[in-house]
Structure formats: structure tokens, C-alpha cells
Amino acid sequence: MAVVNVSSEKNMGMWGAIFALVGGFIPYVGGILSLIGFILILLALKGIGDAVGDERPFKNYLYAVIFAIGGLIVILALLFGTFAIAPAGWRLSESAGIGLAILLFILFVALIIGAAYFQKRAWLAMYEITGTKEFKDAATWIWWGALTAIILVGFILLLVARVFVIIAFNKMPSELGEEPEQARAEEEVIW
């Protein structure tokens, strides 16, 4: 594979990861900032994948985003649908409310695990492509964070994973690939 310059994709991915992380802490406009961040990451992964001929990072990250959005829509539909089909003046009993809350929490955790599975695959593919260890670390932190989200400690681990993604894009080489052996041999010859 020839050497390809991916410095713009590297910067795009790093800024996208920063926006996605910071957006979660900013009220009102944070959601828009996070969305911009996810789009920048997708564009960076698409550019890197096109440059090296490997579409795994982009496809897996796209599946993770689709899974998360689809799961969120299902949870919201269940939540609002429960109240929409209830007769006027009907109130949830305490036990029904607790049961609904538990069901929605379990669905939320399942959503996180499903999306994390695809994100893990995307970052592992980026590790294979770039050799940047922090992508592998991000994949590990994402997976353990998703699995431990049920006890709420996982959300801290997911935050750590996002920081590792920022570090990984920052440390990623600007050029990927190798020079052909013949070109290297010609450079080494001294006349």
C-alpha cells in the first residue's frame, strides 16, 4: 500500500471527538455540538477508510450511530406510547411506574451495549490500520463501560473511552501505509 496523507482526517476526527465529548456537558446547544462531533468522526473515518481501502471503521461506527438512534427512538416510542394508549384520567400505579422505569432502564443499557459493540469494532479496526495503541484502549474502555453501565460505573468508563478517542486521533500518524520495497532500496543506494 502506498503512503497516503490523512492529516485532515486526523484533525477532523480529533475535533469531532472533542465536540462529541464536550457537547454532553453543555445545556441547550450541547446536543447539536455532539451531533456535529459524531458527523465529523464519521467523515474522518470515511476519509481514512477510503485512503487505505478499508471501510470497516466507517461502517462499524455508522452502525453504532444507527443502533443508538434507533434504540433511542424505540425507547421514546415505548415511553410516550404507554401514556398515549392510556384512557384519559388514568394514572400509573406505583408498581407499574417502577416496572416501566426498570424496563426502560434495561432497554437503555441494551442500547448502550449494542452501540458499544459496533464502536469497539470500529476502534479496533482503526488500531489495526494506524497502529495507534490508544484506539485499542478506547475500544476496551467502551466495551467495559457498556457492560458495567447497569451499575452506573460504566458511564465513567464510557467517558474515559471518549478521552482515549481524542488522544488516539491526536497521536495517530499523519501518513499511513508503507513505501514499496523497491523505492526504499533505491533510496539506500549511495553513489
UniProtKB/TrEMBL annotation:
It comes from the Archaea. The chain crosses the membrane at residues 12-41, 61-86, 98-118, 141-169. Keywords: Membrane, Transmembrane, Transmembrane helix. The keyword RNA-binding does not apply. This is DUF996 domain-containing protein. The lineage of its organism: Archaea, Methanobacteriati, Methanobacteriota, Thermococci, Thermococcales.
